[in-house]
Write a structure and sequence with these properties.
The chain is mainly beta. Helices cover about 0% and strands about 55% of the residues. It has no helices and 11 strands. The strands form 2 sheets. Strands 2, 4, 5, 6, 9, 10 and 11 form a 7-stranded mixed sheet that branches. It starts with a strand and ends with a strand.
């Protein structure tokens, strides 16, 4: 079993920054791919950014150049989503997701609200 815990969400003004963290625990090891998703009210959950086990990254067009996904150098089990130049449309619940051992695991989500 794998557990994912997100943190770092909150309220920020447009143009501000937040850094989300996702820490994995349990029966998970090695370098694995991880993705960040978000779900705004009334909308479907969609992928925002992903990082492969080899460190390659990919972003949805709406966040490319503003968001950065990374893996901790010290702790492979912690991933980050650095969000800069935040916009009101970035408001959503953000989830991290890992597919490991044939199972998809989700964190509990963390709320990000961008508002003046």
């Amino acid at each position: 079993q794998v557990q994912l815990v997100e943190s770092g969400g909150g309220l920020v003004q447009p143009g501000g920054s937040l850094r989300l963290s996702c820490t994995a625990s349990g029966s998970i090891y090695g370098r694995y791919a991880m993705a960040w998703y978000r779900q705004a009210p009334g909308k479907e959950r969609g992928v925002v950014a992903e990082i492969t086990g080899d460190g390659y990254t990919n972003y949805v067009d709406s966040v490319r150049g503003r968001f950065t996904v990374s893996r901790s150098r010290d702790r492979d089990r912690t991933h980050y989503l650095q969000m800069d130049s935040l916009k009101t449309e970035d408001t959503a619940v953000y989830y991290c997701n890992v597919y490991f051992g044939g199972t998809s695991y989700w964190g509990q989500g963390t709320q990000v609200t961008v508002s003046s």
